[in-house]
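Q: How would the structure tokens look for this protein?
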Amino acid sequence: MPTADRDASTNGAEAETRRWQLAVSSGILGWLLDAFDFFILIFLFDLIAAHFHVRKEAVVYTLTLTLAMRPIGALVFGALADRYGRKWPLIGCVLYFSAMTIFSGLAQNFSVFVLMRALYGLGMGGYWGIGASYAMESAPLRIRGLLSGLMQGGYPLGYLCAAAAVQIVTLQHGWQIFFFLGAPVALLVAVLTYLAPESKAWGAQKVASLKEIFRAMLPHGRIFLYLLVLMSVMLCLSHGTQDLYPDFLKSIHLGDRAIAGMNAIYAISILYNIAAIAGALIFGSLSELIGRRYSIMLSLLLCLLSIPAWAFGNTLLALVCGSCLMQAGGQGAFGVIPAHLNELSPASLRGLFPGFVYQLGVLVASPATILELKLRDLLGYRLALAEFATGVVVILLVLFYFGPEARGRSFLQGGSNQSEIHRFSDGD
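A: Here is the predicted structure in token form.
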């Protein structure tokens, strides 16, 4: 897009959207809360298993159940957002998943707890799509990339908040209290969303009925399939570099070491989550200068460069540097995703399309950890991590190099790079 046209579009977008800060803040805060309510469980496995007199594996299984429900939530809440606007479905979604979290803490038996975590998954899956579309549609075009990084950075920040909470909040009132901590934030998100303006982009593109929304999906099968493959591999990178890494550090006896008086495994996890947030902001901002694809590809190259220290480091310093660079690159790529997916999504389906693709990708990528474990049994931990990460990054580089981009697309009027989208879709 020529500079003059881009500046004009930017100024128009800013003039059209007053109090955009409220809309963006609600999207970011809600995703942070969503992550907090999800990750708090991983710190409470043993306590919950003992309370309900079940095996630890049974509690761990509820994570899988939550993840499996996410695409359904994205489909339901996303369709509502495209039919009735972003505000009220977003308010309903955050209050719903917060209520399911509270009910998890109030569960009188394990069966009810499992049911609440499954129902929570519907809200968790629904929130990202609506929150991301609402934030990106409301954001000024000139800082859409930066706010995309802030939006996605809420996920590792939510993880950090959960880790901090279990160290700060006393257990004298029982594990249940941790499922109540997010309720005030949910109310804040609801208030911010209520005070924020409705998305003008939705008003310009709204569809008359839910039936028309699902019918409108059909012409966009090619771009949907491309983005589904893309997000599935992206989530393989995220889970493949995070889920087993603490266990890997434990396997090389790093738990006997300390960093600033803290167990090295937990300290490294905190440090690389901080690096992940920084990476999301840096590469999200950079995408405004060099484009979405090139910014993501640059972050993926950082992942490749980090692999020797990340997987084969023999010193504490090497492992810290390698893990921080890996997460800065991996989550840096994710920092561009809210803007990239929304810019590539059909205008009338922006509440449903990005979130459904994202959450289906979560489901498709769910076996990644199992695959890594099988590679570990065959090759050893270090080589398994390195080969899995290398393979995934190379596939992503190819997908992004040959993929479409619509940076700077106007959500009100269509905008730039439509020919690239039409290579993958029959219409917009």
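The longest helix spans residues 56-84.

The domain at 19-422 is CATH 1.20.1250.20 (Growth Hormone; Chain: A;).

Upvote if useful.
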